Amino acid sequence: MTHLLPITHISGLYNRFTATCAALALVAGFTAPASALAQECFVMVSHGSDSNVWWNTVKNGMRDASEDFNVPVDYRNPPTGDIGDMVRILEQASARNYAGVITTVPNLEMIQKGLTGVKAKHTFRSSPSMAAPNPA
Q1: DSSP for 41-56, written as a single string
Q2: What is the chain's Cα-based Rg?
Q3: N or C, fewer C-beta in 10 Å, the chain?
Q4: Is the pLDDT of residue 40 over 80?
């Protein structure tokens, strides 16, 4: 089974860190047995630019988790943070047939076109823990 996991806009460093750790946990082995995951490749698509220190930290964490858990994970992002480029990266991810796609959602309306192809090939699955906090 394949998954698309949207990470909605989350405010605060702690919430972003928590969301990233949850995404890593999904990729690292909570979605399928380790033996099955070793055969599949996942991709994380973020909107962060190459110059963004936060997203470089996330990219390094994904690389380390990939190596530690022997689960192939690609990290893709638009070098300048351009949302149009992010849409093209999502379309390319759909064409490549990754086992699962994890993505940030900086603006759902703007990236909807890129998500359409991914959702057509993959089972859409959202995690409540990834949603933005609901104000009381």
Answers
A1: -EEEE----TT-HHHH
A2: 14
A3: C
A4: yes
> What does the pLDDT average to over 118-130?
57
Residue 47 phi, psi (nearest 5): -90, -5
Q: Give 41-60 pLDDT, tens digit per residue.
A: 999 999 999 999 999 999 99
Q: Tokens for 70? A: 């022997």
Tokens read off for 23: 């995404």
Neighbours of 4 (CB within 10 A): 21
Q: pLDDT tens, 45-102?
A: 999 999 999 999 999 999 999 999 999 999 999 999 999 999 999 999 988 878 889 9
The encoded tokens of residue 42 equal 């996942």
CA dihedral of 125, 129, 133, 135, whole degrees rounded to 10: 90
Q: Is residue 90 part of a domain?
A: yes
The whole domain housing 24 covers 3-130
CATH number at residue 96: 3.40.50.2300
Cross-strand pairs, 75: 44
Asked, for residue 135, whether it belongs to a domain, the answer is no
Domain count within the chain: 1
